[in-house]
Specification:
This is Oxidoreductase AflY. The chain is mainly alpha-helical. Helix content is 49%, strand content 0%.
């Protein structure tokens, strides 16, 4: 690859593929963009996929792009990259170049990451992001080889894309959202070297026959783009047919097969020990109830039969966003204890931010989009089960959490003419999101900015949804579902800020939680 083509990887940021993607907050200027692009390029050339030999992901680009999108200045972006680069592992030269002829030979092998990175960079520069994603994530060729008898040796690229706590999905999602070839190449290279997981979420049988509707994919992208940009009117209830995400949760809460016992105490465990515990829990969840979840996912969004409309797909996207935020925030909340900001359920929130990008009509044909969304749904539900299948106390959560948080610390003294005259609390904090974003920008935790950015965007999309938007039909084990409204996202952001610490206001840095929801045995 020439130096000129390498420079083109980070020449500029492109537009998001659909207006449903997050808008970028004001604050970032030309210096910020220049610093961001230099940092992304430096990371691309210098550092490895993992920052240690235990498979812990390099999050530098996630941190940089999330902070930039929230309005970070050039000096702040530079400080973020300095902090991230201080503990990264240098790039490792691939034992041999990766080409189309040997592509499947080295899947799942970390040492070939740089080889896959060079390969995907060349392909993306030649074909572009949409065609590359369609070929290497969704085609039969790169998922199932009829000549391979051992299922463990199958390419399974879609399964790999959804593995690793959804890191390949998230990394690639940033590339699609910001139209960055280099970022997308990294995400696809990550996909290639991750182990295939969640086999029951992405069964091989789906790739043993040609997918329906593929021939008309180009036409469907063009003709469906316009209606995909609209959302339901706010005064209506959710328009659903068949299973909803919440009715699936209700059913699984009542199924004794979906109870996963803890793998033992987690308090005081090292990150490496926690990694093995969590991996065992996820494997156990798939083995025990993977077939149950897959059947529910097929009822939620069938892959056979006529393709769904853009409106239906957008509503299914909305369902899964609400579900993921509820699983993170409502499951983690209790009136008696500190908020349990579960690290793995948090990834359901941060990964959902890229649904608008990856499901954009200009990025993938409908056949691939519904396949992706159904598989993602299965992974999200299985992750919840693997964390102990915590219940959702929706009614209590909505009654007892704060939808308009006031940050701690010394408050300003507003002028006597400030509005509203009779509410000083509102005068000093008219928009609860602004102090949340402000403290998030300077917080060193790389996952916090991703979480709060996602929650803020979901509030933009769905914050005006009223109570009774979600009906309780078919969700009998979710008491209070009709109480759920668009303040869910602000409540989740407030709980997250409290748990991770208001650092602008002088609080210590908090942390994410890893114990899950297994009762006393995980304490």
């Amino acid at each position: 690859m020439t130096g000129e083509s390498k420079n083109n990887l980070y020449a500029s940021l492109g537009p998001a593929p659909t207006p449903l993607c997050p808008q970028r907050w004001p604050g970032a200027d030309h210096e910020a963009e220049k610093t961001l692009l230099w940092s992304l390029k430096d990371n691309h050339e210098k550092w490895h996929l993992y920052f240690n030999d235990k498979g812990f992901h390099n999050h530098a680009t996630h941190h940089l792009l999330a902070k930039y999108a929230l309005g970070a200045s050039g000096p702040l972006i530079n400080a973020v990259y300095d902090a991230e680069a201080s503990y990264q592992r240098p790039a490792i030269k691939s034992p041999e170049p990766v080409k189309e002829q040997n592509f499947v030979n080295h899947l799942g092998k970390e040492e070939y990451y740089s080889g896959y990175l060079e390969f995907f960079t060349s392909i993306l520069l030649e074909k572009g992001i949409p065609a590359t994603l369609e070929e290497f994530i969704f085609s039969n060729k790169y998922n199932y080889d009829p000549q391979v008898k051992d299922d463990d040796e199958q390419p399974r690229m879609l399964s790999r894309f959804l593995s690793g706590v959804l890191h390949p999905w998230i990394h690639t999602g940033y590339g699609v959202e910001f139209d960055l070839i280099g970022q997308t190449a990294e995400g696809l290279a990550q996909t290639a070297v991750h182990r295939a997981g969640g086999d029951k979420a992405v069964p091989l049988s789906r790739f043993q026959t040609p997918p329906s509707g593929l021939a008309s994919s180009a036409v469907s992208r063009l003709t469906s783009a316009l209606p995909s940009l609209s959302l339901n009117s706010t005064g209506q209830s959710a328009q659903t047919t068949g299973e909803t995400a919440f009715s699936v949760l209700s059913r699984l809460l009542a199924d004794p097969m979906c109870i996963i016992a803890s793998m033992g105490p987690t308090a005081g465990k090292s990150p490496v020990e926690m990694e093995s515990i969590v991996a065992a829990l996820i494997k156990k969840a798939f083995e025990r109830c993977g077939d149950i979840v897959r059947k529910a996912a097929e009822e939620w969004l069938p892959l056979d039969g006529p393709e769904p409309s853009e409106a239906t797909l957008n509503h299914k996207m909305e369902e899964i966003i609400w579900m993921n935020v509820a699983l993170y925030a409502i499951c983690g909340w209790t009136d008696a204890k500190q908020f349990n900001a579960d690290f793995f359920l948090m990834h359901l929130v941060t990964s959902a931010l890229f649904l608008p990008s990856l499901l954009a009509p200009s990025v993938l044909p409908m056949s691939s989009r519904r396949h992706l969304l159904q598989a993602y749904f299965s992974i999200c539900v299985s992750t919840w089960i693997s964390r102990g299948r915590p219940a959702l106390a929706i009614r209590d959560f909505m009654a007892r959490t704060d939808a308009h948080i006031t940050p701690p610390g010394v408050k300003p003294d507003p002028h006597k003419d400030a509005l509203p005259h009779d509410d000083k609390k509102l005068q000093v904090n008219a928009n609860a999101w602004l102090p949340i974003v402000q403290t998030t920008l300077v917080h060193p935790d790389e996952h916090l900015c991703k979480t709060q950015r996602a929650l803020a965007h979901f509030a933009v999309l769905y914050g005006d949804r009223p109570k009774e938007y979600w009906k309780n039909e078919g969700a009998h084990n979710l008491d209070g579902l009709e109480e759920l409204d668009g303040t869910l996202f602000a409540r989740a952001a407030a709980l997250t800020a409290n748990r991770l610490g208001w650092m602008v206001e002088g609080e210590e840095k908090g942390h994410w939680d890893f114990d899950g929801f297994f009762g006393d045995e995980s304490a």
